[in-house]
C-alpha cells in the first residue's frame, strides 16, 4: 500500500491511484491496433474513496 499512498504539504492523505480507463466496447486487443484516449472535460474533480 505504501506505493500508492502519500501525504501533501498539509499532511492530507493523497492516493496515487484511480480510474485507469473506461471500456466502451469489449473485444481482443492486439499489437498494432489503435487505442483512442479522450481526456475528460474540465473541471477535473478528485474522486472520493469508496
Spatial order of the strands in the main sheet?
1-2
What is the string of SSEs from the N terminus onward? Answer: EE
β-strand amount: 5-15%
Rg over CA atoms, rounded to whole Å, is 16 Å
Q: Helical segment tally?
A: 0
Structural class: mainly beta
Mean pLDDT figure: 85
Could you give the count of β-strands? 2
Query: How is the quaternary structure best described?
Result: single chain
Low-confidence parts: none
- In whole angstroms, the N-to-C terminal distance is 16 Å
Largest sheet: 2 strands, antiparallel
Overall description:
This protein is mostly beta strands and 50 residues long. The protein is 0% helix and 12% strand. It contains no helices and two strands. Strands 1-2 form a two-stranded antiparallel ribbon. Strand 1 (5-7) and strand 2 (13-15) form a beta hairpin.
Topology overview:
Blueprint: E1 5-7, E2 13-15
Antiparallel strand pairs: 1-2
Kindly list the characteristics that best describe this protein.
50 residues; mainly beta; 0% helix
Outline of the structure:
This protein is mostly beta strands. The chain contains no helices and 2 strands.
Amino acid at each position: 500500500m505504501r506505493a500508492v499512498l502519500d501525504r501533501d504539504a498539509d499532511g492530507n492523505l493523497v492516493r496515487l491511484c484511480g480510474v485507469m480507463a473506461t471500456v466502451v466496447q469489449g473485444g481482443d486487443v492486439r499489437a498494432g491496433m489503435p487505442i483512442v484516449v479522450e481526456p475528460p472535460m474540465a473541471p477535473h474533480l478528485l474522486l472520493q474513496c469508496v
